[in-house]
Design brief:
Elements (H helix, E strand, L loop, with lengths): L24 H14 L14 E2 L2 E2 H4 L13 E6 L4 E5 L11 H12 L5 E3 L2 H4 L13 E3 H9 L4 H15 L7 H15 L26 H11 L3 H7 L4 E6 L5 E6 L12 E9 L3 E10 L2 E10 L2 H18 E5 L6 E4 L2 E4 L2 E4 L7 E6 L5 E5 L5 E7 L11 E9 L2 E10 L8 H16 L9 E2 L7 E2 L1
Antiparallel strand pairs: 1-2, 1-4, 3-4, 3-11, 5-6, 7-8, 9-10, 10-11, 12-17, 12-22, 13-14, 15-16, 15-21, 16-20, 18-19, 19-20
Helix pairs in contact: 3-5, 3-6, 3-7, 5-6, 6-7
Length: 466
């Protein structure tokens, strides 16, 4: 897979303006001092905001240090695990311009409404739409699959219009009066189907302003919903993960020519696990990027909207992923140092559970799953342990369940395992029961315990990373 390495980051900030004229010497000196001070770049810094959300709770509410929070520049951002859990959010439901991220929906609608071998024709409007281009010319023909590479890899606006007009005519049932609008209508209908609550598409490429208007918008939440849906399509995944590539098109004169497509995704081949998805840039939208990362530790989808410069959107994305993976830890939950023989092997001695028909008898208990562990997100707080002891009466056999360990983080049950008896224990026989009754009578007179006390040896503070 070929990809481009991210370019060196440009200097950020604004510069103070020197006074062009100084009627007085003091004013001139002051101007020079101010110019020297303000010439240092500032503004547009990455930051952490009190209303940024971690797992649906603001940083201010969580009371966590800014040092452990993502430090990004984008005005809107969202990081979601593939199970739907939102790990980080900034203005995620705020309507924003998304520029060429629009093309994700263009690809989805095309993939779901036309075969990959559909012939896409480039007309004058498509060839002349301007801005980012795949280099298509009027009269070019290609398969839909090839056109999708031209759409997604270099962010070709020409490919977007060509796809929309060709597939739109199919959607309109042959009525070609406005096939592009028929396609855009399908884009908006699909957004509603996906549960996008604040998204409006007005064209298939995402250009805004001027002849394209300024009504189109979406939100980080809606974009992530779209990305997670699109990435379930194998063809879409392979296209956005392709990096730089070469495709062949048939020119108007019937000849075949090759187009070299340079990917706009500067994380491909550079950042561990990145597999797409789409950039977007306009003056109104700023610099945007929707991404996806797949690693053994888990998969995430992200979007950053309105970053101040091109490299910032990739820096912001990497920052979010680094933060998420850096806070995912595997916790070993059974850590007692005591052992007990259970079925011929040394097993963790997790507890001793009182047999309530005896006065001073407790049963050694191990756990059903000695290797129990759980993936934990560090900022959710510590994992606590809750112990339940069963009321043991009658004969108890090795392997019988005698209690339970529940592990809780931030009020949610994250794991549990049974306490199991490590040995047999018979109930008192007739004469033993009489002796127990007498003993308990004496103990009650002396205000002493009538049964043994249950005890747990697996402590919450012993829970540690694997």
């Amino acid at each position: 897979m070929n990809s481009r390495i991210a370019p060196a980051r440009a200097s950020r900030g604004v510069h103070g303006r020197m006074l062009s004229e100084a009627p007085r010497r003091a004013a001139a000196v002051l101007a020079i001092c101010l110019a020297s001070t303000l010439a240092v770049p500032y503004a547009a810094y990455a930051d952490v905001r009190p209303d940024d959300e971690i797992l649906s709770e603001t940083i201010a509410e969580r009371g966590v240090s800014v040092d452990v929070c993502p430090d990004i520049e984008a005005e809107s951002a969202l990081l979601v695990r593939n199970d739907g859990t939102a790990y980080f959010a900034r203005n995620a439901d705020e309507p924003m311009k998304i520029a060429s991220i629009t093309k994700i929906m263009t690809a989805v609608v095309a993939l779901e409404n036309a075969p990959l071998d559909t012939t896409i024709v480039v007309d004058a409007e498509a060839a002349g739409v301007g801005e980012s281009s795949a280099g298509l010319a009027e009269g070019d023909r290609m398969s839909l699959e090839t056109a999708l590479y031209a759409l997604m890899v270099p962010s070709g606006n020409d490919a977007a219009v060509a796809i929309a007009k060709t597939v739109g005519a199919m959607l309109a049932g042959g009525d070609e009066s406005d096939p592009q609008q028929a396609f855009v209508h399908a884009m908006n209908a699909k957004a509603q189907t996906l549960g996008c609550v604040d998204t409006l598409y007005t064209n298939p490429h995402g250009l805004d302003g001027g002849v394209f208007g300024d009504e189109a918008h979406s939100t980080a939440s809606d974009v992530v919903a779209l990305v997670s849906y699109a990435m379930k399509n194998d063809t879409f995944r392979s296209i956005v993960d392709a990096g730089d590539t070469v495709v062949a098109v048939t020119s108007a004169d019937g000849s075949t020519r090759e187009l070299s497509l340079a990917s706009t995704d500067e994380l491909l081949g550079v950042y561990d696990g990145i597999c797409g998805v789409k950039t977007g840039t306009t003056d109104a939208a700023g610099y945007c990027f929707a991404g996806a990362v797949v690693r053994e530790a888990g998969s995430f989808y992200s979007v950053v909207l309105n970053s101040p410069e091109s490299k910032a959107r990739f820096d912001d994305t990497a920052e979010l992923y680094d933060w998420a993976y850096g806070n995912l830890v595997e916790k070993r939950l059974v850590n007692t140092r005591e052992t007990v023989e259970y079925r011929g092997e040394d097993s963790p001695l997790a507890a001793r559970v009182a047999h309530t028909e005896w006065v001073d008898c407790s049963i050694d208990a191990t756990v059903a799953d000695p290797d129990l562990s759980v993936e934990s997100f560090a900022l959710e707080g510590p994992i606590s342990q809750e112990v339940s002891y069963y009321d043991l009466q009658g004969d108890v056999k090795a392997g019988d369940i005698v209690g339970r360990l529940d592990f809780v983080q931030n009020g949610d049950l994250v794991a549990q395992t049974d306490l199991v008896a490590a040995r047999d224990q018979a109930a008192p026989d007739f004469w033993q029961a009489i002796g127990v009754s007498i003993d308990r009578f004496i103990r009650s007179m002396q205000d002493q315990p009538l049964t043994a006390s249950s005890e747990c040896f697996n402590r919450p503070d012993s829970i540690r990373d694997l």
